[in-house]
């Protein structure tokens, strides 16, 4: 029966060419854009490598020194008439205000007070992105270096292509070693082959390449650096405060522990930090930490709100609105087109019902027909999406983000296509299935 | 085979009430070829639609093949139509996007039989109306008489006990009409199929076993 429906759907598409063109144009455009959005979400917020453990991340990138103060606003507004006061509307507003001095963390604070928390399975302390100009054959290139620790590799799950990562011994010994992405290796050496053991001259120092990982373009710089160097090599001369510095802390929480629990521990750790260091600016009496999950941090990077949860909820709404815009409107349009298309076939419905089709048969027939049409549109949309993704990746229109075409992307795209087909076909099919046989046969359009 | 008791059909709008059928009692025994005649608007097609469960009476009871179908759920009615009834319409009602064979196969789609068996039965039905060589054609490529023969093949493919034909020769010239009547008569005589046919054509009606006449929704003869 299904093959019969598919055959019929195919013939009807061929018979009404203009209608088919309009429908397919709408479907393919809609699905193409949706697939690009899906690819973006999957690449940036999915759990493909190197973000395998993304849902266990808790990230701290700011130490806020906080001061509270009394705030008084005085307004004088007095009206005189013939040197006599007729109206005195002077008032004062007394309230409290607070001021924050925000910066990244000093590694001393991170190592001493933040690296041993009960709910954390792994803790990595790193400088997320330090840009260095490198000259290759007289041409300037800018490399983003992450100064990290061995734990970094246990949290950010880079796919190692060759060699190894550095260990604690090398960290402690300030070994001049680095791990490079394949893309950066190619940019620097002109090839990805045989780069292990070679040296890269970064920021006035020669580093030996000990490993190479697969490049993945992500907006978050710490997820896809060009090179990773032990942070003991970083020049920390300008880190002159006990509190502030250049470092971020990334946690991978223990299994079965909530991210909120780990966040609470991080927030509490602030109370253990001494506030009597000479480098503390006067008047600042408290330290505040605002750790975020990966998604919250991502949202904050896109739309900053002091409360990351607010940013996250705004990001969610932006995504939902985008999807709604690209799905609901075209779906409604297609439903409308489908109703007129199916109305045209009311006498066929009458005949089918007369010969024994029940409502379920009619509904499934039109949904299958619609799915055939949507899959066709989906294939064209897929081609469109590939072209758009290629263009976005080549042009670098989404900062560092490189849109991926993972198996999950194909699966989600297929599901979205089928869902679109069902949604846009269900209502017209249901409506037509209710048609009275006698009235349907009277249409006599066969 | 078919028993109608006090069948009434009334169409109501806000202002007008029209009685299409008024207290129709009818018994069509198994194997009978019955024709219904009457002027336009007398309720012939309404009666046929009610017998074929395509429309519901406003009052009265219908027994088809010994079963009262009054309280049938919609799915049971569909199955009953599929297994027991076959329809032939004046304007053929073939689906233009389906080939002749696919059109004939249509009633079998709603039975749980294999596609191979469906094909075989449809080919046999087409052969029985003399159109085996037209199976791959589309309705638009056929003459009126050929279209009606395809419609007959579709009506008989599921081997129904009753065939309901609504002016099957109405859109055909007399030669074609005779040809179609010949097929129906043969079906009735050789297969024992009960046939109820609505017609305007006295000549065709005379070829059937019995003729009833309707006038203004009532049976007059």
First CA to last CA of chain A: what distance? 21 Å
**Which parts of chain B are unreliable, with pLDDT below 50 for 5 consecutive residues or more?**
none
Summarize the amount of helix of chain B as a percent range. Answer: 25-40%
Q: Output the structural class of chain B.
A: alpha/beta
Q: How many domains make up the 3D coordinates of chain B?
A: 1
The CATH class name of chain B reads Alpha Beta
User: Strand fraction band of chain B?
Assistant: 25-35%
Topology:
The complex is a heterodimer of chains A (446) and B (221).
Chain A: H1 2-15, H2 17-45, E1 57-60, E2 63-75, E3 78-81, E4 84-88, E5 91-103, H3 107-113, E6 120-136, E7 139-148, H4 152-155, E8 160-163, H5 168-172, E9 177-181, H6 182-189, E10 199-202, E11 205-213, E12 227-230, E13 248-253, H7 259-269, E14 286-289, E15 292-293, H8 294-302, H9 308-343, H10 346-354, H11 359-395, H12 407-433, H13 437-443
Parallel strand pairs in A: 7-12, 9-11
Antiparallel strand pairs in A: 1-13, 1-15, 2-5, 2-14, 3-4, 6-7, 6-13, 8-11, 9-12, 10-11
Chain B: E1 2-12, E2 17-28, E3 33-37, H1 44-51, E4 59-64, E5 67-68, H2 74-84, E6 85-88, H3 100-109, H4 115-128, H5 144-156, E7 162-166, H6 174-191, E8 194-198, H7 202-205, E9 210-215, E10 218-219
Helix pairs in contact in B: 3-4, 3-5, 4-5, 5-6
């Amino acid at each position: 029966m299904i093959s019969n429906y598919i055959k019929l759907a195919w013939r009807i598409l061929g018979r009404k060419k203009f209608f088919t063109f309009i429908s397919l144009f709408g479907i393919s455009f809609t699905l193409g854009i949706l697939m690009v959005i899906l690819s973006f979400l999957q690449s940036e917020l999915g759990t493909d490598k190197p973000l395998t453990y993304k849902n266990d991340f808790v990230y701290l990138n700011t130490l806020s020194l906080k001061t509270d103060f009394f705030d008084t606003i005085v307004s004088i507004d007095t009206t005189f008439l013939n040197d006599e006061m007729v109206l005195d509307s002077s008032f004062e507003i007394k309230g409290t205000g607070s001021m924050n001095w925000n910066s990244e963390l000093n590694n001393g604070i991170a190592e001493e007070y933040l690296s041993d928390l009960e709910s954390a399975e792994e803790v990595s302390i790193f400088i997320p992105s330090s840009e260095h100009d490198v000259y290759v054959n007289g041409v300037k290139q800018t490399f983003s270096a992450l100064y990290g620790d061995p734990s970094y590799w246990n949290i950010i799950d880079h796919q190692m292509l060759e060699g190894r990562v550095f260990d604690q011994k090398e960290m402690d010994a300030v070994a001049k070693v680095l791990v490079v992405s394949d893309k950066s290796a190619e940019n620097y050496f002109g090839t990805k082959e045989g780069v292990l053991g070679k040296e890269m001259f970064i920021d006035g120092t020669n580093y030996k390449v000990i490993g190479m990982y697969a490049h993945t373009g992500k907006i978050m710089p710490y997820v896809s650096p060009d090179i990773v160097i032990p942070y003991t090599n970083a020049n920390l001369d300008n880190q002159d405060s006990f509190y502030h510095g250049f470092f971020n802390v990334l946690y991978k929480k223990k299994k079965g522990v909530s991210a909120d629990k780990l966040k609470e521990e991080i927030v509490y750790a602030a109370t253990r930090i001494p506030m009597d260091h000479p480098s503390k600016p006067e008047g600042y009496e408290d330290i505040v930490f605002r750790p975020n999950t990966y998604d919250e941090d991502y949202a904050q990077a896109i739309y900053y709100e002091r409360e990351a949860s607010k940013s996250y909820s705004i990001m969610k709404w932006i995504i939902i609105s985008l999807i709604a815009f690209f799905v609901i409107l075209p779906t409604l349009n297609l439903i409308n087109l489908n109703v007129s298309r199916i109305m045209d076939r009311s006498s066929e419905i009458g005949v089918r019902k007369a010969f024994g089709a029940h409502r379920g048969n009619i509904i499934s027939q039109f949904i299958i027909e619609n799915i055939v049409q949507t899959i066709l549109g989906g294939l064209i949309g897929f081609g469109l999406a590939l072209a758009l993704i290629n263009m976005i990746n080549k042009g670098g229109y989404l900062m560092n983000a490189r849109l991926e075409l993972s198996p999950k992307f194909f699966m989600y795209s297929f599901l979205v296509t089928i869902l679109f087909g069902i949604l846009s076909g269900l209502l017209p099919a249901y409506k037509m299935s209710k048609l009275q046989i006698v009235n349907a046969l009277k249409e006599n359009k066969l | 085979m078919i028993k109608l008791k006090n069948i009434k059909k009334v169409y109501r709008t806000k202002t007008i009430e029209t009685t299409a059928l008024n207290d129709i009692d009818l018994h069509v025994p198994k194997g009978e070829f019955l024709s219904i005649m009457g002027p336009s608007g007398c309720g012939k097609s309404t009666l046929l639609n009610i017998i074929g469960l395509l429309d519901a009476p406003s009052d009265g009871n219908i027994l088809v093949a010994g079963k009262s179908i009054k309280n049938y759920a919609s799915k049971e009615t569909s199955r009953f139509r599929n297994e027991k009834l076959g329809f032939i319409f004046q304007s053929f009602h073939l689906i233009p996007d389906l080939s002749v064979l696919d059109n004939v196969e249509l009633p079998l789609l709603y039975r749980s039989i294999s596609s191979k068996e469906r094909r075989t039965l449809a080919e046999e039905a087409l052969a029985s109306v003399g159109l085996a060589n037209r199976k791959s054609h589309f309705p638009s490529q056929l003459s009126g008489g050929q279209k009606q023969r395809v419609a007959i093949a579709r009506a008989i493919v599921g081997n129904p006990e009753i065939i309901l034909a609504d002016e099957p020769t109405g859109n055909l010239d007399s030669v074609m009409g005779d040809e179609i009547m010949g097929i129906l008569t043969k079906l009735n005589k050789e297969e024992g199929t009960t046939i109820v046919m609505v017609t305007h054509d006295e000549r065709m009606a005379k070829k059937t076993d019995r003729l009833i006449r309707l006038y203004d929704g009532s049976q007059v003869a």
